[in-house]
Design goal:
Elements (H helix, E strand, L loop, with lengths): L2 E6 L7 H4 L7 E4 L9 E7 L26 E9 L2 E8 L14 H9 E13 L6 E10 L11 E10 L7 E4 L3 E4 L7 H13 L4 H4 L5 E3 L7 H13 L6 E3 L11 E6 L2 E5 L4 H10 L11 E5 L10 E2 L4 E7 L2 E6 L2 E5 L1 H12 L5 H4 L10 H12 L2 E2 L4 E5 L2 E4 L3 E2 L4 E7 L3 H20 L1 H14 L11 E8 L5 H4 L2 H16 L3 E8 L2
Parallel strand pairs: 24-25, 25-26
Antiparallel strand pairs: 1-5, 1-10, 2-3, 3-4, 4-5, 6-7, 6-8, 8-9, 9-10, 11-19, 12-17, 13-14, 13-15, 15-16, 17-18, 18-19, 20-23, 21-22, 23-24
Helix pairs in contact: 2-3, 7-13, 10-11, 10-13
């Protein structure tokens, strides 16, 4: 029973030639021995045999030709059914597709519409944040979506695999941008199967149980706002505003990848990890600092120096957020997504509901250019608080947690950070929620906190009054924090605040002015 990996192209892809990347090389057309009843073109690629890349380690003392040679093969079948173009790929064939022309979430929608609700085996998620986390969770048998611990507020479902409700539809189905199905199908019955998939893709039945996946709506490539959004993204990249833009893998990393290679203006840069800092450094060394995300291409290579990922423009790895008019847009996975207004407003309202202790705590201003360490020392002296900055509690020999930056006599656990980037604020929000959860459930941690509290005040009682975890954010931006924070950060804050409340404690905000 074959396993088919199927892509759907957008409506404006009208020819087979337009579906293939211009620089896709090494493919030759194979003509059918028996004609098909529908338009189709089969392209096959076979690379030249070569020794694996890891053989270089041994070549000074061994004859590496004895190690054998490797081939990288692939095929792509382009077909036209019901006025739409599809691609079926095998091996490395998927690397030849022009990904800017495929329908996003084609396979995902099919899967959510057809999988048995209790038949999900694998779930791939991606957090909505500049500090992006790609996660794959697998069960050894079918499960419901809730069993995977999906957080609709912060998790963006990228792909799902499982057992369809109707076995005649498919034996097994994976849905991402492409749909990968194991089914009883051959070239003659292929048109009927593709028609079935197209109907499943167009259905909105998934919204009853999985409506949260529409919190982010992909923009059509012809949307008139795209140019302005792209210009804003490129400006963030070129002006190196790393607080608003970052790189993240489009998918869960292929374990075969040993290194990434970025190519710009015929110069190649090897990157062991994909991050903007290293890329900017290499571009600067080469005197190519004004590159744009569209002009740099990135490929992952295995230990045989063979490409094992698609050759993608750098834009496919970029994550950023841009406001345009009354809407907020996120760029991720090579495309723009408009965040549903109700979703944005719900998140903002959750953050607005967090008490603001700015006037109560009356924290001193942070001086321009002042680092958090000296500031915390100065605050502790002025306010007669316990300074816990860099005072770590070790959970294990390899893991440590900062209780807070300050502990006050009123049992406020204050964590301080400058608003420099979403990634920095993610660390701040994580610090508070992790500390709260440990305080609730770890005996040694509670003893440590009580010891610290009594060193400040011999009458200190750990749970009297109920501890309040305070996020103190230093910023030059005017207005309320909810209007100053990046949306990525608001999502993270709302989620971490709920975790603190779930642990039985209070949460609050505090604004620190920067002079």
């Amino acid at each position: 029973m074959p396993r088919l990996s199927i892509y759907l192209f957008k409506d404006d892809a009208k020819s087979f030639d337009s579906a293939i990347r211009v620089n896709a090389s090494g493919y030759r057309e194979v003509l059918p021995v028996h004609s098909l009843s529908y338009p189709a073109r089969l392209l096959v690629r076979e690379s030249s045999p070569k020794a694996p890349k890891w053989a270089r380690f041994f070549e000074s003392h061994y004859e590496v030709t004895d190690f054998g040679q490797q081939l990288a093969t692939g095929a792509i079948l382009l077909v036209e059914i019901a006025g739409r173009m599809f691609a079926l790929t095998n091996g490395v064939g998927h690397t030849a597709i022009d990904r800017s022309k495929i329908e996003p979430r084609f396979g995902l929608k099919i899967a959510l519409n057809t999988l048995d609700r209790k038949g999900i085996r694998t779930l791939d998620t991606r957090t909505i944040d500049v500090k992006t986390q790609n996660r794959r969770t697998e069960f050894n048998h079918g499960s419901e979506m809730n069993d995977f611990g999906v957080n609709p507020r912060t998790d963006w479902v990228r792909g799902v695999k499982g057992r369809p409700a109707l076995m005649e539809f498919a034996r097994m189905l994976s849905g991402y941008d492409p749909a990968a199905i194991t089914c009883d199908c051959d070239l003659e019955s292929l048109p009927e199967k593709l028609q079935e998939l197209l109907e499943a893709y167009r259905s909105d039945a998934y919204q009853a149980d999985y409506g949260f996946i529409d919190y982010t709506q992909p923009l059509d490539r012809k949307d008139p706002r795209i140019k302005k959004l792209n210009d804003a993204r490129d400006l963030l990249f070129q002006t190196r505003q790393e607080q608003r833009i970052a790189l993240a893998l489009p998918e869960v990393e292929d374990r075969r990848v040993e290194t990434y290679r970025a190519v710009y203006k015929q110069q190649s840069f090897e990157l062991l990890e994909l991050n903007l800092h290293d890329l900017y450094s290499q571009l600067d060394e080469a005197g190519l600092g004004l590159a744009t995300p569209d002009n740099i291409r990135v490929t992952g290579y295995d230990d045989s120096d063979e490409p094992v990922t698609d050759n993608r423009p750098l834009r496919d790895f970029i994550v950023c957020e841009v406001e345009l008019g009354k809407d907020l847009f996120v760029f991720s996975l090579g495309g723009w997504f408009r965040l549903e207004r109700d979703y944005v407003e719900r998140v903002k309202n959750e953050v607005r509901a967090i008490p603001d202790l700015t006037g109560v705590l009356n924290m001193p201003w942070m001086r321009a250019g002042e680092h958090e360490g000296p500031y915390n020392t100065r605050v502790a002296i002025a306010k007669v608080w316990k300074n816990l900055d860099q005072d770590f509690f070790r959970i294990r020999s390899y893991d440590k947690v900062e209780i807070a930056d300050h502990l006050t006599p009123a049992n406020e656990f204050i964590a301080v950070k400058k608003m420099t980037s979403s990634a920095t604020l993610s660390h701040l929000f994580s610090q508070g929620s992790v500390s709260a959860q440990l305080l609730r459930g770890n005996v040694e941690y509670r003893e440590k906190v009580e010891e610290v509290g009594k060193s400040m005040n011999t009458g200190y009682q750990l749970d009297m009054p109920t501890p309040t975890f305070v996020y103190a954010v230093a910023t030059e931006k005017p207005g309320d924090l909810v209007d100053s924070l990046f949306f990525f950060s608001l999502v993270n804050l709302a989620d971490r605040a709920q975790a603190i409340r779930n642990a039985g404690y209070k949460v609050a905000l505090c604004r620190i002015e920067i002079s």
